[in-house]
């Protein structure tokens, strides 16, 4: 004899339990061990022989490995990149239309959208840890220019954009159309990687270079997962699958920071730039040379001041040899004065 209210409570508890299990499995799918047969890894044996000491040791080793892996990932985390900015208004307007069409279907995706001032193609990512390395990066960018001019042989590099695709339904991007422009762009990316690595800069990725124009990222709004948005639904952009967004004539390559405050127009903080296809050919821009020289002089002055301050502090420390000599000289001087008196 169970009344209807109790039946309803039992039903709700069952639904909640099933929902929790579904959420747990969704989380496991995103884990790096998703391809492992969980049943094989976690199977219970008929006769359990648990060695507590060995279990603790394995747990300690596992924690140490995780900590080491996280440190390695942090040590190799890129914070700068080479950018080809998208300046064609036709392309940016087309992407805004695409974004608005998606938001009309799901307004909560607004925070996942890339702002129109930030549209670009990433040519190379790298890690620059201090101002000295940033200066080296600027120098590498200037050295890259003649290699680019050699690849292009006086031709303009024009990039046509058409269609939509995603990386794992997590990053939405406008595709670069197929054509003769692909190979020169790949050659420029390879030349950039080689030039920066030869300077001792940690640059490049393990995966192959795939040029793309990002317009949205779910990682920009991680709270969306809690609301059930775990993937970009292809139906959101199905009307733009073959849409032509326009062509970008590559005129500039920038060395940009991922972490520094963006400019007022929404574009990334830019340390230096080279102009592509200008009249000066392979010669670096005068303005960039002046800018780099100024930075080098400023850094040299700062280093000299720091060195002077360190030496001054060392001399003033108790027990320092120079301090003892000064005290001895003062004492000798006083003894001489007393003898004269």
Automatic annotation (TrEMBL):
<dbReference type="InterPro" id="IPR009097">
    <property type="entry name" value="Cyclic_Pdiesterase"/>
</dbReference>
<feature type="region of interest" description="Disordered">
    <location>
        <begin position="309"/>
        <end position="341"/>
    </location>
</feature>
<dbReference type="InterPro" id="IPR052641">
    <property type="entry name" value="AKAP7_isoform_gamma"/>
</dbReference>
<dbReference type="Pfam" id="PF10470">
    <property type="entry name" value="AKAP7_RIRII_bdg"/>
</dbReference>
<keyword id="KW-0539">Nucleus</keyword>
<feature type="domain" description="A-kinase anchor protein 7-like phosphoesterase">
    <location>
        <begin position="78"/>
        <end position="275"/>
    </location>
</feature>
<dbReference type="GO" id="GO:0034237">
    <property type="term" value="F:protein kinase A regulatory subunit binding"/>
</dbReference>
<feature type="compositionally biased region" description="Basic and acidic residues">
    <location>
        <begin position="327"/>
        <end position="341"/>
    </location>
</feature>
<dbReference type="GO" id="GO:0010738">
    <property type="term" value="P:regulation of protein kinase A signaling"/>
</dbReference>
<dbReference type="InterPro" id="IPR019511">
    <property type="entry name" value="AKAP7_RI-RII-bd_dom"/>
</dbReference>
<dbReference type="Pfam" id="PF10469">
    <property type="entry name" value="AKAP7_NLS"/>
</dbReference>
<dbReference type="GO" id="GO:0005829">
    <property type="term" value="C:cytosol"/>
</dbReference>
<feature type="domain" description="A-kinase anchor protein 7 RI-RII subunit-binding">
    <location>
        <begin position="282"/>
        <end position="338"/>
    </location>
</feature>
<dbReference type="InterPro" id="IPR019510">
    <property type="entry name" value="AKAP7-like_phosphoesterase"/>
</dbReference>
<comment type="subunit">
    <text>Binds cAMP-dependent protein kinase (PKA). Interacts with PRKCA; only the cytoplasmic form is capable of interacting with PRKCA.</text>
</comment>
<protein>
    <submittedName>
        <fullName>A-kinase anchoring protein 7</fullName>
    </submittedName>
</protein>
<feature type="region of interest" description="Disordered">
    <location>
        <begin position="1"/>
        <end position="25"/>
    </location>
</feature>
<dbReference type="GO" id="GO:0005634">
    <property type="term" value="C:nucleus"/>
</dbReference>
<keyword id="KW-0963">Cytoplasm</keyword>
